[in-house]
């Protein structure tokens, strides 16, 4: 294990997070806790607007749970830290865009980590699978999320057989947004991150909260919550300087200047 399994770099309003645990970027309990701290700090920093998450090296994004650490005593039901496994999938109140730059093998808990992102970009050699079935375990988060993201029958095939998808097939089923050459992966992710970072952060926050909370609600119930300002982020948006700035900029035919307040 490296001394610093998670590398971070700030680029303006963008935080880049790199999982760096040779040889495969697998996540043990200690690494998961660090990731939770990193993503919590990102959530709570008003100057950071977008995160880009990737893996070190060219072969692995993340294979998920570190089985060697498990063999050495890490309990599957141990303390993953705030945010649950990988620090993202159970992190409450994360209302900022997260881009996954998938640089290689993305399987098991690594795929579940990727599914915690909002936009997924993959290098053309990336591959995707849920091989838990072969070791007699359940891909718990993926069993919940995947059938809602891609066609049910494809999701069930992945869950029940553990079969692999290459990047092109993953894009075809809508598992990822797009495929790029490996040398272009981070440039593509950074361009998108910069575009988002220049956008209206309060609108993004409202979108993320509404999408997240409305997932288990009936359409009219969710819509009523929006129109009655029962989402905290929506109420904050409509009382903000940014909302007025957006209207002024449109009327004045200029680019708005977003301040996040």
Could you give the order of strands across the largest sheet?
1-2-3-5-7-10
Percent of residues in helices:
40-55%
Task: Describe the oligomeric state of these chains in a short phrase.
Answer: single chain
Number of helices: 11
- Which second-level CATH architecture of the largest domain applies? Alpha-Beta Complex
Give the C-level CATH assignment of the largest domain.
Alpha Beta
What structural category characterises the helix and strand content? alpha/beta
Global mean pLDDT: 92
The CATH homology group name of the largest domain: 2-enoyl-CoA Hydratase, Chain A, domain 1
Poorly predicted runs are none
Shape: globular
Q: What percentage of amino acids are in beta strands?
A: 15-25%
Distance between the termini: 41 Å
Count of individual domains: 2
Helix-strand pattern: EEHEEHEEHEEHHEHEHHHHH
Using the CA coordinates, give the radius of gyration: 19 Å
Here the CATH topology of the largest domain equals 2-enoyl-CoA Hydratase, Chain A, domain 1
